[in-house]
UniProtKB/TrEMBL annotation:
InterPro entries: Flavoprotein-like_sf, FMN_Rdtase-like_dom, NAD(P)H-dep_reductase. Residues 4-142 form the NADPH-dependent FMN reductase-like domain. Gene3D superfamilies: 3.40.50.360. SUPFAM superfamilies: Flavoproteins. Keywords: Flavoprotein, FMN. The lineage of its organism: Bacteria, Pseudomonadati, Pseudomonadota, Gammaproteobacteria, Pseudomonadales. This is NADPH-dependent FMN reductase.
Length: 196
């Protein structure tokens, strides 16, 4: 049975570079026989949490996440920070959707940055949802110049493509190893519902 990977494009802009990178990575995963779904927070914005979830995109997103074996979480870097849309997403997403599922973090930068949002997400997004960010990560720098065509435009474009393929292979190995783990963990003790 093929793995189901959900990619979360964390930009609040429609037609963002982050969404472009998510589409590229989804296509690469599909070439490895994985099923993919993209949650594009620029096209399907969540209201600022807390909000009535019945009247927005959250119920459909929650179902996609519950069915995922692993995730790819992509954040643009805005002023050295993770995007507000992605931080808001992690207020909605809890252990029912994400607990003990491996995730690859991907930073997206129009310049030479991209690392700070990944550090921020590793530090502040996992506690209650229990998402398992794998040690490997990917940073797509100078994003406007890469991943635009079928063929790499130059050496920098080729390097990020090779690194992306390797990082996705690592994610798939984690997904296979941890498949079914969320269902094997007993959540019946309420005092352990939140992380420490």
């Amino acid at each position: 049975m093929s793995l189901n990977i959900v990619l979360v494009a964390g930009s609040s802009r429609s037609d963002s570079q982050t969404a472009k990178v998510a589409a590229y990575l989804a296509a690469r995963l599909q070439q490895r026989d994985a099923q993919t779904q993209i949650i594009d927070l620029g096209r399907n914005a969540l209201p600022l949490w807390p909000a009535d979830a019945a009247h927005d995109h959250w119920p459909a997103m929650a179902e996609q996440l519950k069915g995922a074996d692993a995730l790819v979480v992509l954040s643009p870097e805005w002023n050295g920070m993770a995007s507000p849309a992605l931080k808001n997403f992690f207020l909605y997403a809890g252990r029912a959707e994400l607990a003990h599922k491996p995730a690859l973090l991907v930073g997206v930068s129009s310049g030479q940055g991209g690392a700070y949002p990944l550090s921020e997400l590793r530090a502040s997004s996992y506690k209650n949802c229990r998402i398992c960010f794998i040690p490997e990560q990917l940073i797509v720098r100078q994003v406007e110049a890469v991943l635009n065509d079928v063929q790499a435009a130059d050496g920098d474009d080729q390097r990020i493509r090779l690194r992306a393929d390797w990082a996705l292979e690592v994610l798939l190995e984690y997904a296979e190893a941890l498949r079914g783990l969320p269902q094997r963990i007993d959540w019946s003790e309420p005092q352990f519902g939140n992380g420490m």
